[in-house]
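Q: Please design a sequence for this.
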């Protein structure tokens, strides 16, 4: 018997959450509404973003393609101005062409930041009301649900919460930007959970208390939306997805390709299909898999340009999940190109610049927490390649790239990373004559891959003319 097809899609998302939820094993954060949703949904325990910062990660989530392909290699607001090469690849466009009513509320950061009407026309939304704090997003989402419930036809509602993004507050000390904003209170009602990649000290606990308050604040907003969905009688006909863009806005997380920068919460409640209820999926999945999954769940064809794969066979038939997940960083508030590939056992990171090892482009505020592996008075330059054995070193502290015992793993991952870069037409395969380190990184990947099986040399394309969008922007206080 064919499973019923829910008509509607409610996609809820937030900033900078990673997997910092009770449903993902964080005991000190108060998230009863998302934990309840997780109990009714499929929870993907090892979901990863394609990028550790906002716009490229969201562009992948909403198009099913990697940043190198869709064109969003950096932030989409001024003065950066990155944009989708083809806005019609957005999920809203695909669904609107299939008869859906479409609306965006709250966070929009996956394409060039323009007036709301322009964003709507470009991305395929009937209406866009971007921005707003939690309460504004809840009120606008509730109003949109009321309109959808009063008319016929399926809907796609994309609602994004700003929280728990760092937000300036009068309570911040000079140079500090925490998680409080105007409405959030620190929460230590259940204690603190300092992530293992940070030192557990007073500064980290101060940050975590604020973060826990911001996550609790966001969770209350999600609860209000889901209660209204139920009150309107829409639960049984609406797929509900909750996710975030990337990892936590903490050192050695956001804007790095370590797991804390790329890991994301991802849960999907699909009414009427039993395998999607109260199920936890352990194998790794990627944000690029979300669009093809939603299209298959709603009975729509999968366009050939998608780079992700539907998760329906994984959930319903126990089919094998992907072998590799890939990550990339090019531009945040300065140019710091990196690429990564991960399997269940290993993570390989290729660094195409000489950025400091423990720094990252999002740390434009004064640090109150520090990486646990930062032990000396100086910060070293990133190595060309980093390799981590996640089975024995889940927090990625011991780089085994030069350990002969891991030569085969380094070679196979280097080959997979190069193949992915070619398949996505990665601009890092273009010659950058002013950056010797860039060529050294490509050479290291190629020579590593060749240690197992000789391969054709990596094609290094001629340097392209540089446009304003290609040039690194000056350092700015991050607003994404």
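A: Design:
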């Amino acid at each position: 018997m064919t499973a019923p097809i829910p008509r509607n899609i409610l996609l809820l998302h937030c900033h900078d959450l990673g997997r910092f939820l009770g449903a993902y094993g964080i005991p000190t954060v108060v998230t009863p509404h998302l934990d309840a949703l997780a109990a009714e949904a499929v929870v993907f325990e090892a979901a990863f973003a394609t990028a550790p910062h906002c716009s490229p990660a969201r562009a992948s989530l909403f198009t099913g393609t990697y940043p190198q392909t869709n064109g969003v290699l950096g932030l989409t607001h001024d003065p950066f101005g990155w944009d989708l090469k083809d806005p019609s690849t957005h999920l809203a466009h695909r669904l609107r062409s299939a008869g859906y009513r479409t609306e965006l509320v709250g966070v929009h950061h996956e394409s060039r930041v323009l007036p709301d009407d322009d964003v709507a026309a470009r991305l395929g939304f009937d209406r866009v009301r971007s921005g707003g704090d939690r309460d504004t997003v809840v009120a606008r989402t509730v109003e949109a649900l009321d309109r959808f419930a009063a008319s016929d036809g399926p809907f796609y509602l994309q609602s994004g919460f700003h929280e728990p993004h760092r937000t300036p507050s009068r309570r911040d000390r000079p140079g500090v930007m925490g998680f409080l904003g105007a409405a959030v209170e620190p929460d230590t009602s259940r204690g603190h959970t300092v992530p293992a990649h940070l030192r557990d000290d007073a500064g980290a606990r101060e940050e975590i208390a604020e973060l826990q308050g911001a996550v609790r604040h966001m969770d209350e907003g999600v609860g209000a939306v889901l209660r209204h969905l139920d009150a309107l009688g829409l639960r049984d006909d609406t797929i509900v997805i909750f996710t975030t863009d990337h990892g936590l806005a903490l050192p050695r997380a956001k804007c790095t390709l370590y797991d804390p920068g790329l890991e994301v919460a991802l849960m999907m409640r699909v009414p009427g299909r039993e395998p999607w209820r109260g199920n936890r999926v352990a194998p790794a999945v990627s944000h690029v898999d979300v669009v093809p999954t939603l299209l298959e769940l709603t009975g729509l064809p999968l366009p050939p340009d998608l780079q992700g794969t539907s998760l329906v066979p994984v959930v319903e038939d126990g089919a094998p999940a992907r072998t590799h997940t890939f990550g990339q960083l090019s531009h945040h508030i300065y140019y710091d190109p990196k690429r990564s590939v991960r399997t269940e056992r290993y993570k390989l990171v290729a660094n195409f610049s000489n950025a400091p090892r423990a720094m990252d482009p999002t740390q434009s505020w004064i640090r109150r927490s520090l990486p646990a592996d930062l032990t000396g008075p100086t910060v070293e330059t990133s190595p060309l390649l980093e390799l981590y054995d996640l089975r024995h070193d889940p927090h990625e502290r011991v780089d085994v790239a030069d350990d002969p015992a891991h030569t085969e793993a380094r070679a196979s991952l280097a080959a997979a990373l190069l193949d992915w870069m070619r398949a996505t037409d990665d601009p890092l395969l273009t010659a950058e004559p002013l950056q010797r380190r860039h060529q050294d990184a490509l050479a290291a990947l190629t020579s590593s891959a060749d240690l197992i099986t000789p391969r054709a040399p990596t094609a290094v394309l001629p340097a392209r003319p540089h446009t304003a969008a290609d040039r690194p922007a000056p350092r700015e206080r991050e607003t994404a």
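Q: Thanks. Anything notable?
A: The longest strand covers residues 279-286. The two ends are 46 Å apart (CA to CA).
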